[in-house]
Fold this protein.
Amino acid sequence: MVSFEEHVAEGAAVPVDGWDFSWFDGRATEQRPSWEYARLMGERMARARRALDLQTGGGEVLAGIPQAPEVLVATEGWPPNAELARAHLAPLGGRVVEAGENDDLPFEDGTFDLVVSRHPVSVRWDEVARVLAAQGTYFSQQVGAGSLRELIDFMMGPQPVSPVRDPERARAAATAAGLTVLGLRSEALRMEFSDVAAVIVFLRKVIWTVPSFTIPAYYDRLKAMHAHITEHGPFVAHSQRFLIEARKLA
């Protein structure tokens, strides 16, 4: 049996750049939303002429589209991820611009007929509306309110659920920015962590889950997690996801 200390050492050593989650195979699972974001996004990309992917991470999801539009641009605020994205998107002729999630977008008004984003940290709805052309579409899968609260509460103690990521709040913000919401769907999805190394890598990679996470600071809680998994089997949490599509009519 692998010891707690061995799991910790492994979890600390795994690289966490980009959004490739293949390391988790056999270590953690996450139920996928029924709507298949990557497929739907790829269909919209194939119909677009000028498209923008906001907060692309390492560009892994965008790189999987079957057909690139004439102009393909992505933004990313973390330089190591931006470099990964440049490598992943080069075969598609994609360009990566470094911009933070709360920055003004460095593009002219009405530049894009499609703006997409998978799991944005935050959304500048005013900027999305500004860079969309008339009849342009925003299409995004986002993290919903209360996502992974079981894991968060285990690590940090009971935490209030912030309404910031509520789907209806996103609808209101999109509408306030002048967009017309065409569709809004949400689902709760089961996640399982089979060992504490997977928990460590996840918290190092998805840094907003437990923003203060470091191994030394949470060593005792990680030890408790290891004991929980050893006694009860995989740790179960639930992610919250919603899909929103909105259009700029004029």
